[in-house]
Design brief:
With about 160 residues, the chain is mainly beta. The protein is built from 1 helix and 8 strands.
């Protein structure tokens, strides 16, 4: 069976064992570039606002997911927000067990309609609860590189 041959029955499908030497390069796009540059240079978070839907997207997007309108207004949102959900990760990306679990949160920053996924720090599993207030902990300005890891983690706040 050739690779481009159409299958008529699902029992005709074959498995291909082995590895494919594929590499990819992820780019953050126009909105992502502005988002990460603002964190790197100014230590602020930006979102894009849709005036049709009254949505603020963080991280920013260039088109609204609801109305497909073009988003070209960037607004500053807070570095603090609410923890909407969280999970505890015990296995690393390489498939190996982590020495210490990592907490990952879904954070809705104040002023944003959507959530940002990132690590949580300076917290124990017993302290974690949905709705708790968290704030971003950024790398020192001189060490920021313009990527998601410029945000070290989000930590609980007394707000």
């Amino acid at each position: 069976m050739a690779l481009k041959e159409r299958l008529n029955k699902n029992i005709e499908a074959k498995a291909w064992y082995g590895e494919l030497p594929v590499e990819s390069l992820y780019t953050v796009g126009i909105a992502g570039e502005k988002f990460f540059r603002a964190i790197k240079d100014q230590g602020i978070f930006l979102g894009t606002k849709c005036h049709n839907c009254d949505m603020v997207y963080v991280p920013p997007k260039i088109y609204c997911e609801r109305c497909l309108g073009k988003l070209d207004e960037y607004i500053e949102v807070a570095q603090c927000g609410s923890l909407e959900s969280f999970t505890c990760v015990h296995i690393g990306l390489d498939g190996r067990k982590l020495e210490e679990p990592i907490f990952i949160g879904l954070i809705r920053l104040d002023g944003a309609s959507t959530c940002l996924v990132h690590k949580l720090g300076e917290i124990t599993v017993e302290e974690l609860c949905m709705g708790m207030r968290v704030c971003a902990e950024l790398k020192p300005k001189a060490k920021r590189e313009g990527g998601i890891n410029d945000i070290l983690y989000f930590k609980p706040t007394k707000e």
